[in-house]
Amino acid sequence: MDTSVLIWFVLFIIATLLFFGTAVVITVVGVQDLKDLLSGSTKKK
Amino acid sequence: MNFHLIDWIILVAYLGLSIFVGIWAKKYVENMEGYFVAGRRVKVALGSATLIATEIGVVTFMYFAELGYVTGFSCFILGIIGFIGYMVIGKTGFIVSGLRKLRIITIPEYYQLRYGKNVRLLGGILLFLGGVLNMGVFLRMDGIFLTETMGFGPNVLAIVMSVMLLIVISYTVLGGMFSVVITDFIQFVVLAFGMLIATAFVLIHVNFATVGAVVLKQFGEAGVNPLVNPRFGWTFLIWMMIGSVAISALNQPAVSKSFASESPAVGRKVFLYTGITLAGRYMIPMFWGIAALAMFGPNMNPTTAMPRLLGTVVPSGFLGLMIAGMLAASMSTYSAYMLAWSSVATRDIIEPLSKKEFSEKTTMRLSKIISTLIGIFILIFGLFYELPATAFQYIAITGAMYAAGAFGCVAFGLYWKRANIVGAYCSLCFGAVAPIGFLVLEQLKGILPSSMLFLIDVNVAGFMSFVLAALGMILGSLATQRSHPPIVLKPKEEGA
To answer: I need a labelling partner for B436 at 20 to 30 A (CA). Which of A3, A22, B19, B116 fits?
Structure first.
């Protein structure tokens, strides 16, 4: 495989892993953030 | 028809859930800050999810895939540039922290504080026009994606576009930023899952070796080197380097999420975590486009190649999940954009023009009417407007219409004490000249003399917009320091 193609593939794989890895972390921590936002907000009567 | 009963069940269930949650969140909106910035109580992970969901839509998948199809791996450079831009903002708090400390809701509010109310009005008009034109293409690209992947064909495009819009308007208008944040979070989870499904099935059908060979055969070095690719080159890359920071930090729909964060430090971190995902969310759809080239060859319509690929390789059941994810991406983008542009129109254009202060209730009511009108506009625009360049370049040039002047006014306003009102006017006007000139002259290209054709080079127009905006600010300010002394601002909140 051409070297420049290989470099782009490696960058693509790193970028993809960073995306999905961060997405998992944000999802898990974000649930608690969402609970905090709603519990700290006043409901309209 | 690619779409079967199980896909429909998944899709309808998901859309029903989105509408229910969006309208349910309405009960948390108690005042204007609640409506526009969710009471400024959003933490890092939630803020990051909602910012990512805002910035990913079907339209981004479509234009990145289109770029992948027509440029090969060269377009991956945009992911690297964007990643660096976000990291700069996330690490330094460049622009976003300075604005968040002032507790503003829209960017033109900053213009009034730093330069006066007439600059706010002009900046608001440019921001609104550029933003809504920028959004005009979204619905059309979404409609094409859905009709291609679901297998309906182009004749049902208008119906699909209208239904999507109605759903988003219903919850955005009712629930404001609370609805946007909560639905964005759900949409973020679903869209990430949808992207995972799509990527997995693409990789099952098209392997890396085939993709690499096809790109080299089709484009040669231009497929792997952005500097020799005729669509890119140095002008484009420098424009993107400046533009990625400017548009990231000053795109009202995105920066609204930073304003909604619970502190300036949280606002900065939201950009940092969002930036980590940036290269991936650019490169993944670009790769789908390149894979479409490998699978179907170079003779397809570049816009429809990627959705045709996904409609072909993703099996029934998974297709419903993936489409739900893609719709999730779009709805979160629409809701954030409609809320952001309606808030600019209400607070920065209509209220200053009416010369009286609106009550919170009137502001929110007007914003809801304008959100609906924006929805109607993008439906009509999307059905009838033909794009002058690739969708990515159209979006970048309409973005530059407001981002170049805004970057001149805000970056210089925050970090250069000599920036004054004359510089701000020059920056806003000069920054808009090149993109507007491009959009107008492009329609007249048949009668332009050859010596003027460089004016309709989208890359030159985009690059020049930032150069002219910066020059306008520097020269305008320096020439009028005595007659128009600069206003010095003090932040309302501290913290990085």
So the answer is: B116
State percent of chain B over pLDDT 90.
29
Q: How far apart are CA B382 and CA B408, in angstroms?
A: 30
- For B399, the enclosing helix (H) or strand (E) is helix B391-415
Chains A–B, number of C-beta pairs less than 8 Å apart = 120
b/e per residue, A13-39, with b = 16+ CB within 10 A? eebbebbbebbeebbebbeebbeebee
Minimum CA–CA partner of A5 in chain B:
B212
Query: Mean pLDDT throughout B32-52?
Result: 74
Residue numbers in B near A40 (CB within 8 A) = 41
CB B255 within 8 A of CB B339: no
Query: Quick check: A3 contacting B, CB < 8 Å?
Result: no
Q: Cβ neighbours of residue B433 under 8 Å, at least 6 residues apart?
A: B465, B468
Which carries the bigger pLDDT value, residue B185 or residue B73?
A: B73
DSSP labels, B243-304: HHHHHHHH-HHHHHHHHTBSSHHHHHHHHHHHHHHHHHHHHHHHHHHHHHHHHH-TTS-HHH
- pLDDT reported for residue B68: 95
pLDDT at A44 over 60: no
Q: Which of A15, A27, A41 sits opposite B279 (nearest CB)?
A: A15
CB contact under 8 A, B43 and A36: yes
Determine the distance in angstroms separating the CA of A6 from the nearest CA of chain B, rounded to an integer. Answer: 8
DSSP state for residue B388 in the 8-state scheme: S
CA–CA distance, B134 with B154 (Å, rounded to integer): 23
**Reported ipTM:** 0.89
Query: What confidence category does residue B268 fall into, taking pLDDT thresholds of 50, 70 and 90?
Result: confident
Mean pLDDT, rounded, for B424-448:
86
Contacts of B328 in chain A (CB under 8 A): none
CB contact under 8 A, A20 and B76: no
Residue B347 neighbours by CB under 8 Å, 6+ apart:
B105, B106, B108, B109, B124, B363
